[in-house]
Structure formats: structure tokens, C-alpha cells
Design brief:
This protein is α/β, with parallel strands linked by helices. It has eleven helices and 25 strands. The strands form seven sheets. Strands 3-2-1-7-19 form a five-stranded parallel β-sheet, with helices on one face. The protein starts with a helix and ends in a 15-residue tail after the last helix.
Length: 395
């Protein structure tokens, strides 16, 4: 790409999820006329992915969860928006992305294409009664599957599995959760807080089969039959696989970009390729893969500044994660994996305050449920930042 072509080429954002649209909005706050293009494999509707686990609670259909259609977003953000378009390759040397045989030049490229659902073995995922929910189109498909039915089996007891369990119960569905872990939200909540969430969900009518896995799912007379590893057989109408997400790295790796758990970036969200950045669920920022809204929004603001001529490193303070289980409100600020400390726990029924402290009493993380959730902001002020401000560079 010549220098003149580079001046004329747009900033290209791949992905129309919360990351992509948040960045586009932040860019437009700074420069209304900056050439901007968004490419997305789906229909380009603007929606907030975290809201997909609130549809029944809020009595909203899939279409009602969408905030605006693609055409309205293209007009609002003064950008070209290519929907149902799948990028097949990236050429960092020529500053081009490939869509089959078509090549599109970019000035700067932002990979905001999110994460893929972790797919269970074919014996489980191959049945037509099994679905995963990773975007609005998936959610539309799921709502069609459950229409006229009452029994849903959820595979996975992580954050998303618990949120869907609560939301589906609020919608009047019979819900059964199956997971190989012995507690809900393993790796996120300490055991007492996890027990409080599970107990609250059970009080709402959710049934749990923990410590076992689904070995196969078959369809019989329009019903799903789920064979468990302990020999039990469950029957339901729809099975939702909610076992987690994995950052999308395939195209980045094929283009020669450094990848690990996600696409490697520095604090400026720059990848190992010139003028290529990564944002949101697909990015691994100095070793951190954080698939939550707060780090995403902070990243979008910082990257918009960088792309408009004001290099700005991302900084993440303590960012409590709010779990959308209204039967047991929960907030958690997990300690770093390398932390050395212990949990101090207070519990009154399903209200838990768990504080992770180091040997000197310093607060490294926390989990609060029920009545203790009101303390989340005060506790957040005591916890070390996830990613401290970059050190000043001498001039």
C-alpha cells in the first residue's frame, strides 16, 4: 500500500459486538469525519451481549434486545458497514484484509471479533436440540427452540450458566444445570459465595447435577435425552451448552500475529503487526484476558484516543464483576492468580462477604453476595488495580 493509499484508507473494525460499536462511538466523539468501516459476519444490529441473559427477566424478545439495526448504526456513526461479510485473511505487509478474492485496504485495523463458544464433543453438541448462545442471532435461534416448551437443561455452571438459569426460571421454565465442577462459578467465586448462589437458585427451583458431565445427547420423539457420566438420564426439551468461551485467534495467528490465550497486545492494544490492534474478548493485554464490560469500555476509550493521534495506554483499576443472578445479587473482584493469601469469610444465610487478604492484611480480592453487595464499591477502592498506569517514560 502506498502512502497516498494509506491516507485515504479507512480505519477498519472487524466485529459489530459491544467492542466494535463502543470503539466506533468513541472515535466519533473525537472525529466526526474520520474514514471508518466496520465489517461483521452477522446482521450488524447493535445490542449489548450481557443483556442476552436477561431477556426473560425483562420480558424482552430477541428483537427487543436489539438497540438499533445496521442501517441506523451506519448513519448514526457515519461509517460504511458491511454485514454478513466474513473476513478470510489479513495481510499486514500490504495493510489489507481479504474477503475471499476481494482485498480491502486499511489505515489502521482493529480486531474486535470476540470469542467462540467452546464446543463440546460431537456426541453432545451434534444433536439438533442442543444450542449455544454467543450473539443475538444465536439468541433468536434459542428463543425459537424453546417456544412452546418448558424444560431446559443447561450444560455448564459458570457465570453464564448461572445467569441463564436464573433468567429462565424467571421466565417460568423448568431448569436443570449439569456441570463437572463441584460448585458453581469455579475459579471465580470462593466456595462459600458459590454455595450461596447455588442455594438461592435452588430456592428458585433450579435443579443441579454437579460433579458429573454430559456424555451424549440424543433426540427422541422431539425431546432431548442427556446421558450423564454417573449413569443418570435426563429428559428435556432444549439443551443449552454454556461451558465457556475461547478468544478468536485463528486468523490473527495465520497472519503472523503473536497469540497466546488471546491475541497478544501491549498496553496501547497494539498487536505484534504494525497498525493492527485488538480489543475486547479476543485480546490478551499484557497477559490479561478479561471478557467483561468494564475492561472493554476502558479499552475502547483508550484505543480511540490512540487512533486519533493521542497515544493512550489502557489502565484497569479494580473492576468488580456483577453477576446477573437477581435471586442472589453477586459481585466479585477475583485476586490475581499469582496472589498469595487467604479468604476471610462472613456468612448470614445467602449473604456472604469473602475477603482475600495477604499475610499483612492487605485486600487482594473479594466476593460479596446478597446484602453485602452494597459494599462492592467501597471494597473496590482497597483492591490493587488489575493493570496499573504505565510508568512515565523520560523524554
Amino acid at each position: 500500500m502506498t502512502a497516498n493509499q494509506g491516507n485515504q484508507a479507512p480505519i477498519v473494525i472487524i466485529g459489530s459486538g459491544l467492542s466494535g460499536y463502543s470503539l466506533a462511538r468513541e472515535l466519533r466523539k473525537r472525529d466526526r469525519d474520520l474514514p471508518l468501516m466496520m465489517i461483521t459476519a452477522d446482521d450488524g444490529a447493535s445490542y449489548s451481549k450481557p443483556m442476552l441473559s436477561t431477556g426473560f427477566t425483562k420480558a424482552k424478545t430477541a428483537d427487543e434486545l436489539a438497540q438499533a439495526e445496521a442501517g441506523a448504526m451506519a448513519d448514526q456513526l457515519n461509517m460504511e458497514l458491511r454485514t454478513h461479510t466474513r473476513v478470510t485473511g489479513i495481510d499486514p505487509e500490504t495493510h489489507e484484509v481479504m474477503i475471499g478474492n476481494e482485498r480491502l485496504a486499511y489505515r489502521k485495523l482493529v480486531l474486535a471479533w470476540g470469542a467462540d463458544v467452546i464446543r463440546l464433543p460431537e456426541a453432545v453438541s451434534g444433536c439438533d436440540r442442543v444450542c449455544s448462545i454467543n450473539d443475538l442471532e444465536d439468541y433468536r435461534h434459542f428463543r425459537k427452540l424453546v417456544e412452546g416448551h418448558r424444560r431446559v437443561i443447561l450444560l455448564g455452571a459458570g457465570l453464564i450458566g448461572c445467569e441463564y438459569a436464573n433468567d429462565l426460571r424467571n421466565g417460568g421454565y423448568e431448569v436443570t444445570v449439569v456441570a463437572p465442577s463441584t460448585q458453581v462459578m469455579p475459579g471465580l467465586l470462593p466456595e462459600p459465595a458459590a454455595d450461596a448462589v447455588r442455594q438461592a437458585l435452588e430456592d428458585e427451583g433450579v435443579r443441579f447435577h454437579l460433579g458429573v458431565a454430559a456424555e451424549s445427547v440424543s433426540e427422541e420423539n422431539g425431546q432431548a435425552r442427556v446421558q450423564l457420566s454417573d449413569g443418570a438420564m435426563l429428559q428435556g426439551d432444549v439443551v443449552v451448552s454454556a461451558v465457556g468461551l475461547r478468544p478468536r485467534t485463528g486468523l490473527a495467528a495465520a497472519a503472523g500475529l503473536a497469540v497466546g490465550h488471546g491475541i497478544h497486545t501491549d498496553r496501547w492494544l497494539a498487536t505484534s503487526a504494525p497498525d493492527v490492534y485488538a480489543l475486547g474478548d479476543c485480546a490478551e493485554v499484557e497477559g490479561h484476558v478479561l471478557m467483561y464490560v468494564m475492561p472493554l469500555m476502558a479499552g475502547a476509550r483508550a484505543l480511540a484516543a490512540t487512533l486519533t493521534g493521542e497515544p493512550t495506554p489502557v489502565k484497569w483499576g479494580a473492576m468488580p464483576v456483577m453477576v446477573k443472578t437477581p435471586c442472589c445479587p453477586t459481585a466479585v473482584c477475583p485476586p490475581a492468580e499469582s496472589s498469595d493469601g487467604h479468604w476471610d469469610v462472613q456468612r448470614e444465610g445467602n449473604s456472604v462477604k469473602a475477603l482475600y487478604r495477604d499475610a499483612r492484611g492487605g485486600l487482594l480480592g473479594f466476593a460479596v453476595t446478597g446484602d453485602y453487595v452494597i459494599e462492592k464499591q467501597a471494597l473496590s477502592k482497597e483492591v490493587p488495580p488489575v493493570l496499573a498506569p504505565a510508568p512515565e517514560v523520560a523524554g
